[in-house]
C-alpha cells in the first residue's frame, strides 16, 4: 500500500478539491493524508483521508477571506487586491503580480525544514503538491523526494511553453479583453516577476541542494512523473509538446455531499429551497468565491437585475461578510447566507452566477448547470474564455456590469440552455476524482521510462489521460 501525503495551502478553494483527491486516493487503496493548516482537518475527515497539520504560508482563507485571522501585511494586500478589481482586469492582474513574492514564496527555507521534518515523521512513498505551493515544490526538489503535481486552476497555470507567462491569460473572453498597451504592460510585469522567482529558486537550491540539477524556470517547476489538472480536457487548450510527465485531466472534484439520516439536509437547506420554489419557477445561485464575495456591490447588482428581468426566478446568494450589507435584499424570492453548500445546491438550482473560479466552473459543468461568469482576476479570464468557447455559459465584465445586463443574461441561460452544456456534462460523467486517483496511482508506479514494474508496459509518458 502506497503512503501518500497531499499537501495543500491553507485556502478553502484549494484544500477542498485536494481533500477530495486524498479521499479518492484512499478509496483506490493508498494510505492517504491531507497536510494543511489545522482548520482544514474536517475536510480530510469528511473525504475519508487522514490528516497531518502543516503550515506552508502565512496567508490563509478558511472560507471567507476577509474574516480569516491573518497578519496585518496579508490583510493589507487583500484589501489592495479587492480595490484593484474595481479598476479592471489588468489592474487586478498587476496587483497580483506585485503581491506574488510575499503571497507565494514567503519563507522557503522554513517550508523546506518543515517538509524535511514531515518526511522524517511519516516517510511517505510520494507526495501530491498544489502547483501554486511553490515553496513546497521547491523543497521537494531540493530534498529529492518523489511527487505529483495537482493544478488547482486553469491548466495554463503551469506554463505550456517558453512564450507562456504565469499571470497572463492564454485567452480572453470578448467582454474583458484589454488593449494592446495594457497587455504589453502586463507581460512586462509577469516576466519581471518570473525572473525574480527564478533567481530566488536558484539561490535556495544552491544553498540546500548544490549537488542537484538547478530547478530552472520557477513557474514551470513541476513533477516529472504526473500532473493532475482539475479541469476538462478541452481540445483547444495549448498543446504540451515533447516528453514529460503523464497529464491527467480529471475534469472536476465533485463528490456527493452527505445528507441527514432521513435523506434530507441536516442544515435546513431543503426547507430554504422548498420555500423559494413555492414562489418561483427557477432558482439561481449567486456566489463569487471565498475572496470576491467581498464585492457586495456586484452581488447587489446581480440580485437586483435578476429580480427585475426574471420575475419567475428566485435567488440564493453567498454573501460572505456582506450578509448585513445585503440584508435589505432578503425577501420571498431572495435568500442571503454567509456561505452555502455549493456542490449540493448545484443539484437543485437552474443557473449560477460565479466569478470564473476553477471549482465553480468545473462543478457547474459536471452538474449540468449553465453559468453567467463574471471574471475579476487570476485564471478567471482564461476560464471565462473556455466557458464561452465550450458553450456552457456566458461572460460579462463585472466592472461595467448593470442590473439589466446581468438579468438579461440569466434570463437567456434559463430559457435557452447553452448548446455545449449537455455534451461537456456527459464528457465529464466518466471522470472525476476517483478516476483521476486511479490514473495517478498508476502513473506514480511507473518507472521513468513509462513502464510499470508490476504490469505490462503502459502508455508513453506525456500522453493526455
From TrEMBL:
Superkingdom field: Bacteria
CDD domains, per database record: GT1_Gtf-like
Bias type Basic and acidic residues, positions: 443-452
Family matches, as InterPro entries: UDP-glycosyltransferase, UDP_glucos_trans
Keywords: Glycosyltransferase, Transferase
Region called Disordered, residue ranges: 443-465
Name of the protein described by the UniProt record: Glycosyltransferase
Species assigned in the record: Streptomyces litmocidini
Phylogenetic placement of the source organism: Bacteria, Bacillati, Actinomycetota, Actinomycetes, Kitasatosporales
